[in-house]
Every structure is written in C-alpha cells, then in structure tokens.
Design a protein that fits this description.
alpha+beta; Immunoglobulin-like; 2 domains; 5-stranded antiparallel β-sheet; 6 helices; 9 strands; about 35% helix; globular; disordered N terminus
C-alpha cells in the first residue's frame, strides 16, 4: 500500500497543475511539467486531482467544430489594412494572440469558480472531488501512474514510462479484497478517465495485454504495477 501524500499549500504548483490539465500551457512549459511529473509525486497528485475535478466539464458539453470565421472577422476589423498594408498582418496576429491569452485566463477562472462553489444536489452537473488515491509504481521503476477516484470516476495519469507498444495495450484492473480482478478499461496515452465503483483498500493494477485487452476477463499478461487505494 502506498502512503498517503499530504500536499503542502503551494499556489504556484496548484495553478500549474490546473493549467496543465486544461491544456493551456505552451509546448516548452508542458514538457517541463511532464518532466517534473516523473520525479515529483506531489505535483502528479495535484494533476490527478484536477483531472478528477475538471473531468465532468468535458462530459457536460458535446464538442462542436467552430466555423472558420477568421477571414470575415479580419475583413470587418481591418478592411483597408488587408488590401493596402501587408505590414499590418503581424500586428493583427499579435492582437489575436493577446485576445486568445485573455480568453484562456477567463476560462481558467470560470472553471475554478464553478468547482469551488457549491451546487444544487438536484443539478445534472455536480463536480465530485477525489476521495481516494494511489500511486502505482513498477518494480523496475520504468512505469509509474497516479490515480484518483471520486464520484464514480477514476482518473489515471501515466507519469513515467512509454506506451504499451504495437499490438499491445495497458489494461486497468480493480481488485476487491478476496475477489477476482475486474477490468475497468484500457489506458492509452498518458491520461484516462474510467467509470468505476471502488472503495478504500481495493487494489488497482495495470497489466500488459494484447491490443484490445484481455479476452478472458482476467489478466493474461504480466501485471506491471499495482497499489491500494487510500483516502486523500
């Protein structure tokens, strides 16, 4: 069983974890965070916690492809510059970059406020905070995962290690005391959210399976990492 991680108050890392989960960091900052996640379990726990808290935002709205309105907007805002002054183009892009940054800040603020404020229990969108967590570590140290569970959703983040490889998948299992493993789903990429009903003391495990997962209802490949869930 992994020890419970008591997170010290750190506003900078808390905001960094939220921005990482929202996907608003630029590439150098995102790569820097991913490098820290391999060696800093406290930051990994913050990221996993934000995934659990922000996850319902993805499920609340259906993705809609936005129409390409940029040419129309530019022609209305800069009708003369588009025809007479090619030098104005970089200035316009600088304007839109600044506007986009402002929009990102607003989205982050709204997300944080919506999570921190209590909601009507009858509302269809009720954010559940993580109540259980686990840090899964392979004996070789090559694969490490951070898990957080709350409100029927398990958020799993691979903080180190590579993809399963061609023709293979990582499969996630929940194991109740004195019970057989139950598959929760596949882990593809670095992050996944799975519907799961688990409890304190249950073990989470990740096995290496053929592509698509085990066909027997039990792990058929090696179990690479496992840990018990403990209260956050």
């Amino acid at each position: 069983m992994t020890d419970r991680i008591d997170l010290p108050h750190n506003e900078d890392d808390e905001m960094l974890a939220a921005e990482y989960v929202l996907g608003v960091l630029d590439l150098p900052d995102r790569l820097a965070v991913e490098k820290r996640l391999r060696n800093e379990p406290q930051l990994a726990a913050r990221v996993t916690g934000w995934q659990a808290r922000l996850g319902p935002l993805d499920e609340e709205y259906e993705p809609v492809k936005a129409p390409d309105l940029m040419p129309q907007i530019e022609s209305r805002l800069f009708p003369k510059a588009s025809r007479e002054n090619p030098v104005a183009l970089p200035r316009r892009w600088a304007f839109w970059r600044g506007a986009a940054l402002g929009l990102v800040i607003v989205v982050l603020a709204v997300a944080i406020v919506s999570i921190s404020q209590p909601r009507d229990p009858g509302s269809p969108f009720v954010t559940q905070q993580a109540t259980l967590a686990a840090e899964l570590q392979a004996e070789t140290g090559e694969l490490a995962l951070s898990a957080a569970w709350g409100g029927g959703t398990l958020s799993l983040t691979r903080v180190s290690g590579s993809d399963a490889g061609p023709g293979q998948d990582y499969e996630v299992w929940a194991i109740a005391p004195d019970s057989a493993p139950v598959s929760l789903g596949l882990l593809r990429g670095t992050q996944v959210r799975l519907s799961a009903e688990v409890a304190e003391g249950w073990t989470l495990a990740v096995s290496l399976e053929p592509e698509g997962g085990s066909t027997t209802g039990a792990p058929t490949g090696p179990v690479l990492a496992a840990a018990a869930l403990s209260p956050v």
